[in-house]
Amino acid sequence: MFYNKTMEKENTFFLKRSAEDIAEEEYIEEIAEEQTDNAAAAQEESMGVMIAWEAPEAEHIEKSTTWYWASMAVAIVLIAIALWQKNFLFAVFIVIAELAIFMFAGEKPKMWDFTIDERGVTVEGHKTYKYSTITLYDIHEFSDEYHELVLQTKSKVHHYIKIFIHAEDEQKIREALDKKVPHGEIEVTFFEFLERLIGI
What we know:
The protein is of the alpha+beta class and 200 residues long. It has three domains: 1-30; 51-60 and 112-198, PH-domain like; 65-105. It has helices at residues 2-47, 65-84, 88-104, 170-178, 190-198; strands at 51-56, 111-116, 120-123, 127-130, 134-141, 146-153, 160-166. Strands 1-2-3-4 form a four-stranded antiparallel sheet, with helices on one face. It is elongated, with a radius of gyration of 30 Å. The termini are far apart. The chain crosses the membrane at residues 66-84, 90-106. This is DUF5673 domain-containing protein. Keywords: Membrane, Transmembrane, Transmembrane helix.
């Protein structure tokens, strides 16, 4: 009888301790999660993140059957001219280019992450265009959904950086960049106009 009571007390104590341990573990997990969130927020604040958004790397235009036929017709004409001039290397280049167009024309562009902070404009979290390397910026109206942020840099290789922004974010992006970079008109080139016109 005494043995049963002792066992009952031990079981009750064990269950009580188990419940307390579980509650303590849950509390510790909550504290750890809160500290992680605070650390991430502090890191973001220390970096001075002003604006963050996600947008496609390039414009996606749905290609119609007519577009593909027109592309083939242009390619055939160019190949015929190349063969007539006995420029076989150019003919091979046209064939390869046309095959590439057919392979990739239907693919949707990847979505990229962008941020504007105290350092500059960052693409995909690893490539940052610092304000000291940006000489000018402009924003072009592109579509109802997206506008195009154009950064003129000191680099001779990547002189112009073009980034899609959400149309509704244009004003706050202007306000953020105006504090760091001069604004000026950057004209759309004829080649860019032609690209948009034919949808490539």
